[in-house]
Each structure stands twice: as structure tokens, then as C-alpha cells.
Amino acid sequence: MIRVDTSLCLGCQSCFNVCPGQNIIRNETDGRITVHWKRCKEECDLCVKMCPAGAITLVPWDEIEPEWEISFDLVACKICGSRYATEPMLKKIESSLPAEIQKDSTGLEWIRICPVCRRNIEAESLAKLILPGRRKNDWRCSWHFLAGKRGLYPGRMRLLYNLIIFAGMRI
Length: 171
Prior knowledge:
2 domains; two-stranded antiparallel sheet
């Protein structure tokens, strides 16, 4: 059976992702995430091993042990406003990284920016390196131009194409 120290939980959902018995339930609604731990008899300890905060421990089975539940408000992205992570998660990342690594190539604090906006910013930076002088959001360039002018071979072109498509942009 598992016991959760709610004061240590980050709301990262690592336990939810590894639970083979689906005894951990995650619910996300209206900018809040709730994690509910059912009473588990399996004692597989995957959730204990994967918890980055050490908030979960295995204890002997007990009928009166409560089912644990904790809710977190999700933090809004500084760029688009979408809610993407819990405050304890972001504080854990900030405390474990040196200050000079907490900013991306554009000088923004990437920890407080959602993954979608991060990809868009990095793809825009990459495009500026590959196509200097292009207008913003001008993705009408041909493969021949890129391959001929930059000396790229097909493998690198495929990587570039995947990076740009992954960021939601079209060539």
C-alpha cells in the first residue's frame, strides 16, 4: 500500500504515468490538476521509485489508511497563457538548475514558458540562422534553395523539416 506525503508532492504525475494497475488517477479541469491515489495492494513500488520528490512510500496494508488526493493550480505560460505545470514542479526545476541555464537563446526564462511556445521560439531562432534576412513568418522557401545554398544533404534536410514541422510551421 502507498502513503503520500502531500507536503512533498510536486504534482508532476510521474506516479500516474508508471502505475501498471492504474491505481493513480489524474484529473485536469479548469486550470487545476487533481491526483488521486487509491488503496493499492500490488506493492510494485514503481511509483515510489519514480517520484522525484520522494513523496510516496510503501507501507503495510491497512484498511483504515485513507485514499490520498491532492490538487494543484496550473501555472499559466508567460506568452500564450495556457496552463501547463504546477508551481511546485517549476520551483523544483528552478532550484536544481543554475541561474545561467534558466534562460533560453533569446534571453527568456524558459521554465515559465509552455512547451509549445518554447518550440515556436526555438524554431524561429533556427529559421533565422538558416535563412538570414527572411521576413517573419515567411515559410515559402523551397527545398532546392535550402539544399543548394546551404550545402545540406538529404539527412540534414529531413531533420530540419522535422524540426520545423514539429514546431507547427510549414515550409
